[in-house]
Design goal:
Layout (H helix, E strand, L loop, with lengths): L2 E2 L19 E5 L5 H20 L9 E6 L6 E2 L11 E5 H6 L4 H16 L5 H15 L7 H4 L2 H10 L1
Parallel strand pairs: 2-3, 3-5
Antiparallel strand pairs: 1-4
Helix pairs in contact: 1-3, 1-4, 3-4
């Protein structure tokens, strides 16, 4: 088994929605602060809602979500392993806070990585629309538009250059 170096264990984490709990594994190298726990819980729930709506709950592959301060991750394989394959989403939460990301921006980062994986979307512009669907499920009473989640100019530039 491959393990996360410097993993923090025995700490309370966010709630992983029961519909995806066997397909999403949360690892962390730091204690997770309450605001991040809340955002992760919201992101996991909204993603599960959208997956159910899209009829994809039975077709999911496993995802390892790793919470780190700045995105640095070290893994170690057991001595008897000759290789390893896994899907990983990395959440550099202190980097987000240092760069003064809003809660909505942090939630968008969380949901985007989940959407890339579970919907198998590589394209940044295409995934932004699925993220918008998920965020609207999480915040149905808010008037959420793309420009609240992303720099629309960047998305347009990305689309032109892709």
């Amino acid at each position: 088994m491959t393990t996360l170096i410097e993993a923090v264990t025995g700490v309370s984490g966010p709630v992983i929605d029961k519909r995806i709990e066997d397909k999403l594994f949360l690892l962390t190298t730091i204690p997770i602060e309450d605001d991040i726990k809340r955002l992760l819980t919201m992101g996991f729930w909204g993603t599960a809602e959208q997956l159910e709506n899209d009829g994809l709950l039975n077709d999911l592959t496993k995802l390892n979500c790793i919470v780190t301060p700045y995105g640095e991750v070290s893994l170690k394989m057991d001595d008897e392993q000759d290789g390893c394959h896994m899907s990983i989403a990395i959440y550099p939460v202190q980097k987000w806070k240092d760069s003064k990301r809003t809660e909505l921006q942090m939630l968008t980062c969380i949901v985007e990585e989940l959407c890339h994986h579970y919907w198998n979307i590589e394209d940044e512009v295409e995934v932004s629309y699925k993220v918008l669907d998920v965020i609207r499920r999480i915040m149905p009473n808010d008037d959420i538009k793309m420009d609240k989640l992303y720099n629309v100019e960047w998305l347009e530039e990305y689309a032109r250059n892709s």
